Every structure is written in C-alpha cells, then in structure tokens.
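Response to reviewer comment R2.3. The reviewers asked that we include at least one raw input/output pair. We reproduce the pair for Methionyl-tRNA formyltransferase here without editing.
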Amino acid sequence: MRVVLLTGFTANFQVLTSWAQRHGHEIVLVATEPPTTSVLVTSQLEKVAVPVIAAMAPTS
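Raw output as returned:
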C-alpha cells in the first residue's frame, strides 16, 4: 500500500513510519500542516490530488 502522511507532530510521523515499515507499506509523500496552510484531503489520488498538485507546481 502507498501511504501519504499529513502531520504537524513529529511523534505521529515516527509512529506511522514504524507502522508502515512493519506492515510492508511504502510512504510516498509526507506533508506538514502549518496553521496557515490549506489542506487537500481526498481518497482519489490519481483523479484529484495529482492534477491539483501539478497545477500548484512553480513554473520556470
């Protein structure tokens, strides 16, 4: 299973990383959540998250 973590608390990251490793899962993205940040939550990674993240990428 590919896992995306969203946490602003280091202890959560450590617990979830350990859990993923024990169960053979791969963490593919880790994001923190500063208080002034907008958060996208979706269960449709390919359909929703990929285009939204791509649209937010800086252009050169």
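The chain has one domain: 2-56. The CA atoms of residues 5 and 30 lie 5 Å apart. Further pairs are available on request from the corresponding author.
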